[in-house]
Amino acid sequence: MVQVNDMYYAWSPDEEIAGSGECGGAVTSIMKFLLEEGIVDAVLAVKKGSDLYDAVPTLIKDPEKIIETAGSLHCGTLNICNTLSNYLDGAKDIKIAVTTKPCDAMSIVELMKRKQIDPENVVMIGVNCGGTLPPVKAREMIEKFYDLDPDDVLKEEIAKGNLIIETADEEKEISVDELEDQGYGRRTNCRRCENNIPVMSDIAMGNWGVIGPLAGKATFVEVFSEKGADILQKAIDAGALKVQDPVPKGIEIRANIDKAMVNLANKWQAKDFGEEGGLLDIDAYINEFDRCIKCYGCREACPICWCIKCTIESESDDWVGKGEIPPSPMFHFVRMIHMVDSCTNCGQCEEVCPAEIPLAKIFHKVNRNIQDVFDYHPGYDRDKKPPLSVVDKEPSEE
Amino acid sequence: MEWEPKIIVFCCNWCSYGGADTAGTARMQYPPNVRVIRVMCSGRINPLFILKAFDEGADGVMVAGCHFGDCHYDRGNFACDRRMTALKTVLTTMGIEEGRFFLDWISASEGEKFANTMTMVSEKVKELGPFSWRQKAEAG
């Protein structure tokens, strides 16, 4: 029997899936199995858009089409939680399996707590994530550092701290550290992110820790919930997935990779939130906010922002003055007071900002301090309410 | 003329506003730059009220409610406490001086505490000078 916290090496018995997916295509085949068996009505995943630098969320109901979503896209900078809550009505009347990187999973958990997503109807298939790349900068980087034509690239992969770029006839790798020191590499919020394995999803899959003859041909699977255990058991019984117990050394390697990534994230946090990161006094913040053109992009992109009537655009109340560009800092403060306790550092706000305000950095910094005060880590424990939603008779300090 | 700060004090109807009343009937002196806004409960105070007060030109803001366990609505002041603690974190992270925002619990009988607190708040804010989102730009 598969139980919570069990670990496996898994791969697909289907050659087509194993060929087009990463590391044996375990994620793809489990998705296909869920659709075929009718355990879910649809799969929400990410597929390749016009090119490798374009990731598009897609809802699939036909098991044969699952293959479209196979393979990883490191330039997929979207947060799939937004699609789930805004366009699929929070899975209220449809059972959905969704692929989640840690920030997606954390945002989904936060919205479940805020009753915007139905936890009963969502199966979260987590995928390990070492960071995503900003598409435009990634193209620039591939030309500059790899000396390759970005349009020729067939595959990109982050492994052992190196970013590997493959074309039809060559393969080059450069260390992520080196790229980041030059201002390229992963998105800035990903550099600071210490959540690499999505422990809040039902099962987590990734290539870390697969060693020996199966390296590159199998996926490391860890089960985190009863629901996940049940699904994996069914998939194994039906022969949709082949599994093997992991090598102890592999488990150790996986833990070490995670630890190394967390250390790196802490280093970036210290750098971004310290002296080097700027933002030391209110003037520095206001200087950034002054570039705001009030496009509401940050609110639209934020997975946590869900209010039906939004205070920053309300007609009746005068929270943010009308007809002013840049808007008063209240524009950002309203959003901050409303959602910062649940901020998952997904970086969507910064990604969409046309004025390049480092919103993710600002919100992550505030969120880190709130985490310390309330001892609350957004996106983890599903039973723990966000600190500002609790009304109990406990003083907040002492 | 000497600069006088503008200070907004949010008082809950049942305790702190009563405290202000007690201070008044006992003819205790406290600085006149304090403007009291009465709310039914400190749990009514949205953290945005404080930010909006700063945005509209307040130099200091104080929130006063009932002592823990004394809330007329059972637990409104606990809610207030959480929100204001979060707000304090936002303010300090953003680099707004700690001496601009205060939170305290004052009961209806504590007229003296009300008057003393107002004097203390007024002095601290006076030391810091006028508030602006753009401190350096205005100074130089």
Structure characterization notes:
- The complex is a heterodimer of chains A (398) and B (140).
- In chain A, 35% of the residues lie in helices and 14% in strands.
- By secondary structure, chain A is of the alpha/beta class.
- In chain A, the strands form 2 sheets. Chain A has an 8-stranded mixed sheet, with helices on both faces. Chain A has a 3-stranded antiparallel sheet with strand order 6-7-8.
- Chain A is globular, with a radius of gyration of 21 Å.
- The termini of chain A are far apart.
- A 4-stranded parallel sheet of chain B has the order 2-1-3-4, sandwiched between helices.
- The longest helix of chain B has 18 residues, at 76-93.
- The A-B interface holds A 280-286, 311, 319, 328-330, 333-334, 336-337, 340-341, 365-366, 369-370, 373-374, 387-388, 390-397 and B 43, 46-48, 51-52, 55, 68, 75, 78-79, 81-83, 85-87, 89-90, 92-96, 133-137.
Question: Any chance you could write out the topology, listing elements then pairs?
Answer:
The complex is a heterodimer of chains A (about 400) and B (about 140).
Chain A: E1 7-11, H1 15-20, H2 26-36, E2 42-48, E3 55-60, H3 80-87, E4 96-100, H4 102-113, E5 122-127, H5 135-144, E6 155-159, E7 162-166, E8 171-175, H6 176-181, H7 188-192, E9 203-206, E10 219-223, H8 226-237, E11 242-244, H9 248-273, H10 282-289, H11 297-301, H12 330-339, H13 348-352, H14 359-374
Parallel strand pairs in A: 2-4, 4-5, 5-9
Antiparallel strand pairs in A: 1-10, 1-11, 2-3, 6-7, 7-8, 9-10
Helix pairs in contact in A: 3-4
Chain B: E1 7-12, H1 16-25, E2 34-39, H2 47-55, E3 60-65, H3 76-93, E4 101-105, H4 111-128, H5 135-139
Parallel strand pairs in B: 1-2, 1-3, 3-4
Helix pairs in contact in B: 1-4
